[in-house]
Amino acid sequence: xxxxxxxxxxxxxxxxxxxxxxxxxxxxxxxxxxxxxxxxxxxxxxxxxxxxxxxxxxxxxxxxxxxxxxxxxxxxxxxxxxxxxxxxxxx
Length: 91
Known about the structure:
- By secondary structure, the chain is an all-alpha fold.
- The chain has one domain.
- The chain is built from four helices and no strands.
């Protein structure tokens, strides 16, 4: 579980605020570059495009990713299992 990494190193209140959390497709399909097949390379390059789009949107509109201006990013609205476990451990 990534709770110690998230709380002690990243200092995030919620996993939705983490930039690495949205790099999932790139991390998932990076090994596909080593499989010499059109479909595996397509998965990899599509994940690169999603990553580039994510970083451009993050750079252009940082207020969308700040929990102070976006209510859906607050921990009270988070439905991710990691956040639910963290809420139970905090009690």
